[in-house]
Amino acid sequence: MAWIFLIVAGVLEVVWAFYMKQSAGFTRLGPTVITLVAMIASFALLSASMRTLPLGTAYTIWTGIGAVGAFLVGIMVLNEPAGAMRLIAASLIVAGIILMKLSST
């Protein structure tokens, strides 16, 4: 169950990052509220996952999902550039997430 909590927490990190961008510096109410609710839920699920998962594993995977997810949302939704160097960097993060998961089984 801890892994499910962690994955959902990582997805919620992507949600709050996206809506933080949409909030325009917390000047738009709707996106600001979504940001705060998603943040609280993400932190709560991360905390719950840390009851059984090691700190380093949980935090690394949570931030990795958030970083790669936000990167992909930026490319697909916000039309941000997807240069070769950025794609390689994201691939390395994914590789690190996989290795972290494999090392904690």
- Shape from CA axes? flat
Instruction: Count every helix, treating DSSP H or I runs of 4 or more residues as helices.
Output: 4
Compute the CA-based radius of gyration.
14 Å
Distance between the amino and carboxyl termini: 14 Å
Unreliable stretches covering 5 or more consecutive residues: none
For the largest beta-sheet, the strand count, sense and barrel status come to: none
Provide the helix percentage.
over 70%
Order of helices and strands: HHHH
Strand runs, count: 0
Total number of distinct structural domains: 1
**Average predicted confidence as pLDDT:** 94
How much of the sequence lies in strands comes to: under 5%
Secondary structure class reads mainly alpha
Word description of this protein:
This protein has 105 residues and is an all-alpha fold. It has one domain (2-103). The chain is 80% helix and 0% strand. It contains four helices and no strands. It has helices at residues 2-22, 29-49, 55-76, 84-103. α1 packs antiparallel against α2 and α3 runs antiparallel to α4. It starts with a helix and ends with a helix. 26% of the residues are buried.
